[in-house]
Amino acid sequence: MIEYLKKISFKQILFFLVCVLVVEFLQLKQTPFFWDGISKSSRASWIYANGLTEFIVPTDYNSGHPPLWITLLALFWTFFEKALWSSRLLLLIVNIGVAWQLVLLCKNNFVKLVSASAVLLVFLEPTFIAQTTNLNNDMLLLFFTLLGLNALIKSQQLFFALALSGLLFTNLRGIYIVVAIALIHLVYTRLELIKNRKPIYLGYVVALLSFALFCYFQYEKLGWFLITQKENYNAQRQSVGLKQVVINSMVYAKSFLEYGRFIMALFLVPLLVKYIKDKSNRNIKIDRIAIAFFVFAFIFFIGMVPFSNPIGDRYFMICYLLAVILLINLITHFNLAKKRLMYSAVVVMFVSGHFWIYPATISQSWDSSLAYLNSYTVEEQMERYIDSVGIKPSEIGTRIRFNERNFSEFKVLTEAERYTDFNIETNQFILLSNIDNQTKDEDLNEIMSNWTLVKRYSQLGVFMELYKRQ
């Protein structure tokens, strides 16, 4: 079996991964938008409703993120139909693009003797897998990030300009990524890790000018650009004090270690120390990947930790993927005797990551592992029970985003199907779930301790509980 895997080509690996992604699309084609993806759907709906004639979303809906992803959603709804399957068709195409670029990155940066089959280990990274199923803009951002790195290494001017422009028009985090790529470009050139071809610098000019033009038009229409005036979004982009910086630093570090990724740190840190100390045994491909990893990690840290925006694991996918490639390279570089055991441990930990469930009082990045998919089954069971016992949704307070189904599922809700707002003082019934990160610990403890549990459903750690006031 091992010898067969060694003979597999990168093209065969890519074909296999595309097949897996197609099967995933067929299995999940009716799966709703989740969490932050719901707000993207609402903004895409505004563009769609305006017949694709307007792409700058009004301040009331606008989080400040550029509109490439939501515009693509609106385009697909226009060409096909406004449905979950067409939304997921767009995600499938983006996923295939990511697979192509990630396989290419591995092919160009795996050290000699690393088999193409090692790409499969990179693809097992749990947050990466979860994001291939999530209708959000993070996979599009990852596609342009990988395209930018590959174009930089290969000095492909057109692709580089496209990648940088795509990053700036997909998400505000794209600004950090462009800065990181520019710094990587500088270090690569100084250390002669790539050929210094001046025409590629035009990519920065094209991207910055086009983005500046967009910002100008947005300012002309809305009176602001980048920093939204919408209060609930603006509040997430404020600077914080020293105490919160410390807390954010711990959350940042936790993001790199959870969902099984701690095994990477256990293996990678000593190997990196050994590699850095041994200055006589350098490898250009290891150097490139290591530099890219540390630059991205550094830029993300200084760009996010001093601010109030909640830190999500999915923000750092490029770091996780580079870390896996780096580990594979170092294991092969040092020809470790226990490499099969190490690979097996990484596989086990990555798979186990999808079953990491924290207590309800601890916020969790639910969209960063496949665990969130269990919520749909639990939700269906609970609503079937509520309907069977004749409790009206209007009698139930909850922070679960049922009332946004017009955007998450494209389902038109009647007033009778709408739940009431969460209010522990006035609600007769309250519906809780650990998928909700907004309910304060004291409210959770009050309800769980002093209210009557009416019904509970759970699946692989994801639960939903209906309580009644005593």
From TrEMBL:
It comes from the Bacteria. The keyword Magnesium does not apply. The chain crosses the membrane at residues 12-28, 87-104, 110-128, 159-188, 200-219, 259-277, 289-309, 315-334, 341-358. Residues 65-213 form the Glycosyltransferase RgtA/B/C/D-like domain. It is found in: Cell membrane. The keyword Transmembrane helix applies. This is Glycosyltransferase family 39 protein. Keywords: Cell membrane, Glycosyltransferase, Membrane, Transferase, Transmembrane, Transmembrane helix. It is a multi-pass membrane protein. InterPro entries: LipidA_mod_glycosyltrf_83, RgtA/B/C-like. The lineage of its organism: Bacteria, Pseudomonadati, Bacteroidota, Flavobacteriia, Flavobacteriales.
